[in-house]
Amino acid sequence: MKSTVEMGAAGGAPALIDLEELLATRLLVQGNSGSGKSHLLRRLLEQSAGSVQQIVIDPEGDFVTLAERFDHVAIDAAAVQSDLQRIARRIRQHRVSAVLALDELEVEGQLRAAAAFLTGLFDADREHWYPALVVVDEAQLFAPALSGEGTDEARRLSLGAMTNLMCRGRKRGLAGIVATQRLAKLAKNVAAEASNFLMGRTFLDIDMARAADLLGMERRQAEMFRDLERGQFVGLGPALSRKPLPIRIGPVETSGRSGSPVLIPLPEPPGEAATELIFTASPDEAESERNPVPQRPRPATGDVLARLAAQRPEAACEREPEIDPAEAAAAVEEILAAMAAEPELAGRDLPLLFQDFSGRCRKRGLGRAVPPLSEFRRRFAIARAGASAETRGRPEWEAALAHAAGLSEDLQGLFLYVARLALEAAPAPGDGDLGDHYGTRSPGRLKRVLAHLEERGDLVCHVDAAGRRVLALPRLGIETAPGTAAAPEHARRALRPRPRLDQRLARQ
Fold first, then answer.
1. pTM of model > 0.85
2. Residue 249 dihedral angles phi and psi, to the nearest 5°
């Protein structure tokens, strides 16, 4: 599975985007009409297809052609307006890439449809919070900085959904990618949440100044945005580059339904017959009025939902050869143990961990044997606890697992880690190890978590006569061995860094 995608060339070298970093930090694209924004988005979608789920909000209906080349489902918003939230939840459940085409709706309908669809994505069940790129073209329409088209209520709904996507979507696995013609027209709440930027050609002073500010460039350098060619962008961000990087976007495999206008020769002038051609109906028009062409029926909501279910990843797994359940279970345990042993995965978000886990399972040919997200979190916490085979065979460990199941998901891994140490009579861990198993490096937050467990009666932290930490689990009747002795007060003072000479002189 690719973790980076190539967007084009940057000074003779490939211009790469880190997908995992993009999922955590979001992307903002700006450029005037004709600067190549849609081409950029299409390149990103094509290059990352198959590596991550993709969901496109398409006001012009240009991205539905992705369904012809890739496995995207094209959804006609005009046909299923009342069921968009339900369809969005199904999309997250089955991890199907989809394009929501809004071109058949008026602006008012586009705002309401986008709001309902984004709300459905955002409100999906926690067990379906898989990583997904959510691309919104012409974002200034759905998140206007000032009053725009549509009623106030429709704009409020759409702006609220867009703000949720960009501000709170990361924890739900949703990575917002918004493209706009003008930064000045885009709501600041939406634009400010992006950490990656791709700035294309723009001409207005206010937009050039804002683009320069976002890229950390000096105001006098802002004039460069007027000279950018079509398909040329300047990128910055943790997923792109640590300093402004000129990028020329590479070619794409698909094309939109509406291309750029080109000159074609005019027909021969009709001369005096021009008036008759305009005001007189042709035979074809008269025939069509007598026998109108029946309109193509719009797909029913049930048909769309059935297609989504048919294209879910599990359906493809049904065609794979059956694997022995015992072998599949052993392979899953082996993968979990390997991931638990990798220290660089300790601080990674759960959706990214699950994506990594799913990729490893597919490489092993497990298919339908891949456990869902909720089960993965529990089993990964057990694997990270590091219990030996002897410990796992003890009834006290089964009691610890049963008790951990009643805790919130974020506390299970920490509780099982302490339980394993207690059962193996290992010394009490330090704050660093406890923080790694909870997923934080903040001493204050870890202190609050331990206090919460003590209030519940699940854990007691005390010191012995020698001042060494001991962690006890009273509900299980076990405790760890004493840990490292705490440093005496005079030793802690000696370990503090001494102030620099200039600081001491300033105090005097």
1. no
2. -70, 135
- Distance (Å, rounded) from C-alpha 60 to C-alpha 107? 11
Look up tokens 């069921």; give the residue: 83
Dist CA 93 CA 90 (whole Å): 5
* Assigned token pair, 55: 């969901």
Q: Which residue has the tokens 């699950």?
A: 354
Phi, psi of 373 (to 5 degrees): -60, -45
Give buried/exposed letters for 109-122 (b at 16+ CB in 10 A, else e).
bbbbbbbbbbbbbb
pLDDT by residue (tens digit) across 44-69? 999 998 889 999 999 988 899 998 88
Interatomic CA distance for residues 197 and 178, integer angstroms: 10
Length in residues, the chain? 508
Cα 349 to Cα 411: distance, rounded to the nearest angstrom: 15
> Given this model, what pLDDT does residue 267 score?
75
Token readout for 257 is: 């339904």
CATH architecture of 4-258: 3-Layer(aba) Sandwich (3.40)
- In the predicted model, what is the mean pLDDT of residues 126-146? 90
Task: Show the tokens assigned to 27.
Answer: 């992307």
Q: At what angle do helices 443-456 and 431-438 cross, to 10 degrees?
A: 80
What span, in angstroms and rounded, lies between the C-alpha atoms of 352 and 3? 11
DSSP-assigned letters across all residues of 471-501? EEETTTTEEPBP-SBPPPHHHHHHHSPPPPH
Q: Can you tell me the distance from the alpha carbon of 201 to that of 224, in angstroms, rounded to the nearest whole number?
A: 9
How far is the CA of 254 from the CAs of 101, 342, 425, 494, in angstroms?
A: 17, 39, 62, 66
Distance CA 445, CA 369 (A): 36
User: Domain extents for the chain?
Assistant: 4-258, 325-489
Distance of CA 146 to the CA centre of its chain: 27
Q: What residue type is assigned to position 237 of the chain?
A: G
**What are the phi and psi torsion angles at 499 (to 5°)?**
-65, 150
Give 275's pLDDT tier (boundaries 50, 70, 90): confident
Report the distance separating Cα 175 and Cα 70, nearest Å.
20
Structure tokens given for 176: 């917002």
